[in-house]
Amino acid sequence: MxxxxxSGSAGGPAGDPVGGPADGPGGRSAKRWxxxxxxxxxxxxxxxxxGGVLTAAPPERGGPPPAPGPVARAETAVGAGAPAxxxxxxxxIGDREAHLRAHPGDVRSWAxxxxxxxxxxxxxxxxxxxxxxxxxxxxxxxxxPRKNVEALDGLAALAxxxxxxxxxxxxxxxxxxxxxxxxxxxxxxxxxxRGLGEFKAADKALARxxxxxxxxxxxxxxxxARAALVHRDQGQRxxxxxxxxxxxxxxxxxxxxxxxxxGAGELAWERGEPTESLRAFEAAVRADxxxxxxxxxQGRALAALGRxxxxxxxxxxxxxxxxLPQYAWELGELxxxxxxxxxxxxxxxxxxxxxxEGAAGGVNSDxxxxxxxxxxxxxxxxxxxLREEWERHPSAAVADALGWALHRAGQHEDALVFxxxxxxxxxxxxxxxxxYAYHRGMIERRLKMxxxxxxxxEEALRISPYFSPLGxxxxxxxxxxxGQV
Length: 485
Fold this sequence. Notes:
Blueprint: H1 2-6, H2 28-36, H3 70-79, H4 86-102, H5 107-124, H6 129-143, H7 149-161, H8 165-178, H9 185-195, H10 199-210, H11 220-233, H12 237-250, H13 254-270, H14 274-287, H15 292-304, H16 308-321, H17 325-337, H18 341-360, H19 366-376, H20 379-392, H21 396-408, H22 412-423, H23 434-446, H24 450-463, H25 471-482
Helix pairs in contact: 3-4, 3-5, 4-5, 5-6, 5-7, 6-7, 7-8, 7-9, 8-9, 9-10, 9-11, 10-11, 11-12, 12-13, 13-14, 13-15, 14-15, 15-16, 15-17, 16-17, 17-18, 19-20, 19-21, 20-21, 21-22, 21-23, 22-23, 23-24, 23-25, 24-25
Protein name: Tetratricopeptide repeat protein
Keywords: Membrane, Transmembrane, Transmembrane helix
Organism: Streptomyces liliifuscus
């Protein structure tokens, strides 16, 4: 194992200054009451410094303990499934790589390194870190195949990052089975259930996380952050917003606080409140300037408020922080709405390039690629991609995307079946979403279902009059053509 590490490139992906392993193969009130009763635990996750890098003189008698350094901060964060700052991640990766060159049999350090690679790939959008993460985590698991919960947690987080939610569920459930009272397995397992559209299972996993005994209780900010996502999936946006507000106040690190603030910004955006959304995103960027999702959220909100040059700058900054295809897609549609066709097409080319780059690192981008192609490329190819994605991950988001792709491909009756799954309030996870309502309304209009079409198009604009720079004008035009009752 030591030779494998030492033979890796001296520079990591995209100018990474550290080396690494060579790339391998690729209810509301009841729930609120329960969460209030969570005992805040202080989980000791990965705080041992194995390489001696942070050895310091003991504090003077009676003085305060030394503040944790970047390696300890990042190790604690990745072990808890919390965001870590990019500089701290770089420090942790360098520390573990150096340690493993000298101590290749250190099972736990391989798991820590794999988790750090995964988090760095998430922070930067560079999918080339994911094969490195997989190799490190599997090295740890091979050396200790039984009760290696750190490696199992890391593999679950990696699979979620790659949008392989079935694998994430497998690893997450294995980790819980190996150590049911260890809280760190539950956040990744909840994310996996959500990605699969198994919202009742996500709710049960959250309840188990909340009920863990005092000595094993998770930090309350992490519980509240996951609770917000589960509430949102159940259409309980007020509960979700309240949970995020509490999580912001309880977050122990700037990156974690920024993550919760960005979630609050997303909720405000979904409610059609761009000013409130912008405030939350701006606060997130102040807490963590490397927060790419908050920068993209700023771009979305600024565009809705008519502050177009600032919106473009925010989108570009987000793309520099993390090369996600959806950031280029949103910027391209903003350009298209302004009549800047060449600029829009250039961004659409970037979308396809980033999807290919992600696929090379094992990332499943079929949901994004399919929805994008339905609007800006080949709808038939979009249908093929999204049918396969529906078989893997039958969530409301995939139902909406597949319904829209079928509509764009001329298969309107089939399209309405999936659009109904995404929007019907009888389906758990069918949240009130302006884009989903817009898609259903346009499909119904094509099927000459004028009453339902008018109702859903009006609902889309009522939920958010800003949901898309291209969709909003199209919804208004369709409503004008339908006329009044």
